[in-house]
Amino acid sequence: MHRVSALLAALMLAIPAISSDSTAAEPPVGKLIYLPAQPANIPANMVAVPVAIWSNGQIFMQWMFVPAQAIASMPALAGSAPAILSPVTSAVSVPATAATTAASAATAMPAAAASIPAAAVSAPSVATAAAINVAGKFTGSTVTHARSMAATCYSCHGTDGKSHSAIPPLAGMDKSYFIEQMKDFKSGKREATVMHQHAKGYTDEEFQQMAEIFAAVKP
Amino acid sequence: MSMQRRDFLKASAAGLAISGLPLRAYGNAAKAKVVIVGAGFGGATAAKYIRKWDPSIDVTLIDREGKFVSCPLSNLVLAGLKTLDNITRTYDGLKSHGVNVVVDDVTAIDTDKRVVTTAKGSFPYDRLILSPGIDFRFDQIEGYDAKAQETILHAWKAGPQTLKLRQQMESMPDGGLIVVGMPLAPYRCPPGPYERVCLMANYLKRAKPKSKIIMLDANPDVASKKPLFMKAWDTLYKDWVEYRPNSKVLKVSADNMTVSTEFEDLKASVINVIPPQRAGHVAELAGVRTDSNGVWCPASFVTYESKSKPNVHVIGDSLLSNFPKSGHMANNMGKVCANALVEMLNGREPNPIPIVANTCYSAVSEDKAIHVATVFRYDPVKDQMTAQPGGGISADLSEVESVYAEAWAEGIWGDVYS
Predict the structure, then answer these.
(1) Is residue A136 part of a domain?
(2) Record: contact B411-A156, CB cut-off 8 A
(3) Counting one residue from A and one from B, how many pairs have CB atoms under 8 Å apart?
(4) Is residue A18 less than 8 Å (CB to CB) from chain B?
(5) Could you list the mean pLDDT of each consecutive 10-residue stretch along chain B, which spans 418 residues?
(6) E runs forming strands in A36-131
(7) Contact B414 A158 (CB under 8 A)
(8) Lower Cβ count inside 10 Å, N or C end of chain B?
């Protein structure tokens, strides 16, 4: 069972428990690191719900399909803002929500997301911003995403960025220099044989995460 | 806006409901055991990175070969530009990371009892990673039997066959014909056959200028880095390379030294036929070679866990995927798999949105090379790895990329085996 279907199963199981569950989850706080493109083909009778997974100040979004019927049976919740999600970048600052119901935690995420301007997700058939707090179960997510991502560089630049060839080392590289170079590769400002192609595959936030890893390595 | 608002509210409720629930519980062994079969780019990387990220995990790496001979750069050995020693690495570096290296043949895998059996021992596991590479389907080509295989080589696993094919080229007369046959995609190393033709031609141009190569490609067109290979053939090897698309090798005869397609029979001095392929035999032993043709292994792109056998993970060329079957991809999958297993064996969720990248260089001459590069990101809705925009091939054949191609090899061999 891959992750999304695991979550979906959890969702199905959880539905009867909604009204009695008054344990407010901790709201997501941090930067929106990743939001994949909105799904194009949504199966009949399903809605695509963006799901937040967060820890250590960073939020990842995924789309999951949820039966429309299940969504329709949810009680409406008061005091929340409309959700508009922007792909990437801006910091998500989570304001204190006024809601005092069990819903408060869940409303926090979209309230925060609403502060992100531009490039809004607009298809009305797509439900927005369900937040799943897996904090505690998921403490490693940011760390492991970052380390896994940085490890994609090691194939050419050497393990931990310690290169022993004509390919430049990344170990110990200044954080802002790394980020600037990656952005320049991405924009085409810095010419390259191959790095412009790689740079376009990562978000600016991911450059930041990788930069932190390489800066921490003793060359 | 009101629509959005309403939808959000509903979704929020769903989110809330989930928040109190425990997610799927993963194993939590005191000292977890991971067994890995296959010490190539995929398996050896997974072994090293599991140890790097959690040294408490016990890792056993099994391979029938006592050392690693790289397929990347092996075409340079054919051209006489590298030796086999140049592209061989030992497992000593892996041992220094605490990997238990076992050189032996795997004879059985019991996925219920979770035990791998080899000729000399048995190895229980909590998680098993299979990175067995490819097996050849000689039965798909008439006449390509064990006896014919002594003369008609694939040289598609670097090692003795690489040297033997080199010797065949050296001993053929000037004016002789080499026929190279390649299978329909997917096969190991998409640009590899075209690189091979370039480097064989490079040798002929220097040593046997009256000779020629005919390439029989089962595919309808050059399947990788097309404009660049076409340019290499046009500008560097015009008199030495003849490329024929839609030309699947149907039959070979070692006795007559002939190759047959639907259209013609060719008689040649050297015949090099790369057969169609499938996931390595070990995948069959574990019962994970379960795609609709029984050829490749379907698995999760988040954990690489087989879709048919729990606790068995499949990486590298054996995987059913849209990935190019390259060493670089296997290396990247090894890291994602290692990352996921380290989390799961510690009772945590794996990274839900893995990223892998491919960088693949091909030499087209002694001093020019080309590349293709792609970043893939997991899309949980489609349950597939999506090639990110921006990837692509070299602008041109270049000397600087020839330097990088060698540096790439040093880099990745070091990343896997040092």
Answers:
(1) no
(2) yes
(3) 285
(4) yes
(5) 36 35 41 97 98 97 97 98 97 98 98 97 98 98 98 98 98 97 98 98 98 98 98 98 98 98 97 98 98 96 97 98 98 98 91 94 98 94 91 96 97 98
(6) 46-55, 58-67, 91-92, 130-131
(7) yes
(8) N
